[in-house]
Design brief:
Strand content: over 45%
Largest sheet: 22 strands, antiparallel, barrel
Number of domains: 2
Distance between the termini: 49 Å
Number of helices: 6
CATH architecture of the largest domain: Beta Barrel
CATH topology of the largest domain: Maltoporin, Chain A
Low-confidence stretches: 1-32
Radius of gyration: 25 Å
Helix content: under 10%
Mean pLDDT: 85
Length: about 750
Amino acid sequence: MKIYLYQRVKTSRLNLYLLMLCMAISVSGIGQSSGVVKGSVSDARTGEGLPGVNIQIQGSSFGTTSDLDGNYQLGGLTPGEYTISFSMMGYAPHNEKKVAVVLEIPKSLSVRLKSNVLASPQVVVTSSRKAQDILESPFSVSAIGPREIQAKAVVNMLDILSYESGVSTIKGQLNIRGTSGYTMGAGTRSLLLLDGIPMLGSAAGNVTWATIPTSEIDRVEIVKSGGSAMYGSSAMGGVVNIITRNAPLKPETRISTKVGVYSQPRVDEWRWRDSRGLLYDTEISHSRRIGKHAAWIRIQKRSDDGFMELNWEEALNITAKLKLNFANAHSAAIFVNILDDKSGLTSIWKSSANPFEAPEGSSRDGTQGTKVVLNGHYNYVYSPELVIKTKGSAYWNQWDSFGADPNYSSENRFYEEVQASKSWTADLTSIIGITMQQNGVDAEIFGAHHSGSLASFLLLEKRMHPFTLSMGSRWEAYQVDGKNQDQVFTPQLALNWKPSPWIGLRISTGKGFRVPTVAEMFTSARRSIFTVEPNPDLVSETSINREFGLTLLTGQMGILDLLKLDAAIFHNRFENFIEPIPDSEAVIHFRNIADARIMGLEIGLGLSAFNNLLDYKSAFTMLDPVELDADGEILDTLSYRHRYHWISTLGLHYWGLDASIEYRYLSRMEKVELFQENTLTGADAPVPIHVWNAGIGTEYRDWHFIIRVENIFQYYYTQLERNIEEERIATFTIERRF
């Protein structure tokens, strides 16, 4: 990274100075006495101690977990009053307010948690880069806990993200509230984080979902408002943060096998193979404590025949995490993933009469490669008021394609971040940091290119009970092949009002941005009947995001064990929007269209009732995605967006059985780009999406059994033209833990 980037904008200097000031502050606290809070956490029904409960001082990064017997101790606290949160998956969260801490006399505090099958995480960290009650979040946030992931025996995260409000996917591309549409895998406006570290590839900016260890996830947090002020480019449409678990207190070994059988096509003429396609997924993992430290390792072998001729996959995945704990003040973690995979490379179907077969001459097309992800972080809790965090990651990707159009690519990405969190008073906190990223790619379709970025960010949060005001900003500069590509300043302002312990209202506005990826600027390729040509003159796209929303969360009310309601109205205005546009000769260029606007409404409901016998989750999203001219007049509907999206899940838990049924609806796409509907023949006509899934699971001693059927009624539809979506598949999963 060129040193002149540090000198371009005075904002960068100021933030660096403030960072050093934060690191140096509170020196007077050295040698002072501190207070202690200690006690136990137990199950409200059985009275048994609960191990592994997350215990957090609200408004700070200071916390701990309970031990094997449910006991805990928080030391190093300065005198004063604190709010302490207790949270654990499967239990309703508990906040203990006005806990008075004094010197020399330990404060005793024991709590009892009530079990709840619907209890998704209510303490989130992504929207404000720190632990925060979801009712006090300045932005729309939803959270998925491990229970939901395990109940569906999820292997690919897309299988569960597609059933979250406002989230959809097209050919593996993540789409939050319609911001991304479909960009041929060359760019995304939704950022994926793994333990808070960006996971996008260096060239195309896409996501390799197979690198996510679904069986080792602690929770998933989805921020649906623009996050560029905190996370930079590609976060203008939202952020998904996948947080991996730490090893449990007791050693644990898991062995699981998932077997699936695809149905044959309903139409006899569509059958392209004699036998049914099969899926095999086997995982072995082991986790344990090593003194104060902890580690887990997971090995996954996957073989999938797929439902289409080129939908097959073979993969070997090795993942490990080491968590290091050095007393209360120091902690670190190292995550590594190695993926070796081989898969078919599909573009479009052979014909409408043969939708599951590959085009002539492409039946042997595929890719093979190796991806390595290495993430790490180190946290230093100088005091309950000051925490310094450093993060780093490295990503390497080597792949080759074979078949009709051989290709190759070699990519790498390096990311570094330093962040300081400071509590100036009980009601004023700040987070300041710097990030750097360097990317390199050498590929036949892109050429050889290097890019890099430097950024500084600042977040101030002021509590004025019952209001919380958040002000953030980010300055970021990019360069491509040694030339300055762009520099952007993105402010953000949000206000949260929590008039009671069970409701929170929020309003926010901010600027977002995304620089074009190497793939969008330099791709020169022909695949099947598609031709893509480069456009190095692309400029960054920007947005203004606005949102107003509320979250309601209540505990026991009559037959209800838990009720959660979330609603939001949002308005996103884009300039220089980047979309892949084919010309009259079907040659595709990525272009900056004039302007775009996406506005809409989202309502989500979740509840459990009858002492956790039933749980229900439903969400509805309505979008109005349009292209605008320079005067703000509507030109057309944006392509590859569903105007209406509804998901619904009903669960039953009785006699040791956990049964569920899920429904997903997306309205007919009003506009596509590659193959528009032929009004004379009806060819390439988009249809609405109606998908039903069902599953049932149970546990017996150390064994866990799950049976699921996806796409029960074998509904046929396309999201990307001439690419039929997945057939019905029945799966059986057996897992043993010991």
